[in-house]
Every structure is written in C-alpha cells, then in structure tokens.
Amino acid sequence: MLNLVLFGPPGSGKGTQSALLIDKYNLVHLSTGDILRGEIAAGTALGLEAKSLMDKGDLVPDSVVIGMIKSKLENNPDAKGFIFDGFPRTTAQAEALDTLLAELNTAISGMLSLQVDDEELSKRLLLRGKDSGRADDQDENIIRNRIKEYNNKTLPLKEFYGAQNKLQEIEGVGSIEEINQKLCTAIDNL
Length: 190
Ligand code: AMP
Known about the structure:
Elements: E1 2-7, H1 14-25, E2 28-31, H2 32-42, H3 45-56, H4 62-74, E3 81-85, H5 91-103, E4 110-115, H6 118-132, H7 140-154, H8 157-163, E5 167-171, H9 176-188
Parallel strand pairs: 1-3, 1-4, 2-3, 4-5
Helix pairs in contact: 1-9, 2-3, 4-5, 6-7
C-alpha cells in the first residue's frame, strides 16, 4: 500500500494537491477537516461538538478524529492506499495512526511536508474564505490561532516522521502543477 501523510500549515495546498494525487496514484483521500465539515452540515452531535472548536481555530479532541479515521480505514478494506490530509495533527494522533495501520499490516510510506511562509498562508486563507464562505478562513484572528495551533501542536510531527526516515520537505510555493510535479517526484522516489 502507498500511505501518504500530506503535511503543512493551513492554506499550504494540502487539499488541492490531494485531489490531484488521489487520481494519479489511485488512493483514498481522508481529510479530517472535510469529514468534520460534513458532520456539521449533517447536524450530528459530533458536528455540533466540533463546530465550536473549529470556529475558534482550536483543534478538536484527539479521540474524536482518531475515531473518525479508524472507521474510514475499516470502511475501505480494498483501498490501494490512503492520503491523510490534515491528520495527524498531534503526536497522539500520529501514534494512533501507526497502531491502526499496523493492525492492517501496513504503515505510512512517507510524509510530504509543504513549506509556505506565514504571510503567504494568511493571504491564501483570506482569499479562500471569500470563495468558499468558510468562517474559519475569513477572520484574521482565527487564522492566526490556527497557525499558532499548527506551530505548537502539529509541527513536532516533522520530528516524529523524521525519526522514522519518512520526512520529505517540498517547497509549497509556485504553480499548482509545479508543486504537484515535485510531490510526484518525491512519491516516486519513496
Ligand atoms: P482543515 O480543513 O484541515 O484546515 O481543518 C479545519 C479545522 O478542523 C481545524 O482548524 C480543526 O479545528 C479541525 N480539525 C481538522 N483536522 C483535525 C485534526 N486532525 N485534529 C484536530 N482538529 C482537526
């Protein structure tokens, strides 16, 4: 199986690039942000609980997102592999993912980390907020908090995957096609 963690701060292009990579490599896309927004749209209890945290730009509890990923893995027994987008975001999530994949006799193949500076991120997120209507992309304070959460809780995962020799750094600035090409080269060399 080819199991990729597409890593990077909010606005680094993970969703855009995932959409291209799932077609090329025939993978299942698992975005915890998309799943949570689906729960909110469906008005579930889980969605209601997550919404107040997401509206502030805080992370939702590890147990919630780990449970969601577990059920998605179980529901896709024939997958050729997965792209994890926006997950894991904490060390506890990364450890849980390793355990879940080991139970399926597989593992993370590589972590592709998109590098984009903070100023460019804020610019992209505010632009996306206008297009998509996502509330957490429209307020500079919320964006700042999301980037802070990323720097405090998520960035340490580079060391986690680096220690497993799975970290690949990719320059995340340029055209969508250029970045996609760099990702494909990195994946083909895994
Ligand atoms: P995203 O679409 O990945 O930017 O996620 C939007 C929001 O959903 C984040 O700001 C968090 O509140 C929540 N979220 C998504 N994925 C996770 C995760 N793996 N762990 C905790 N919170 C998450």
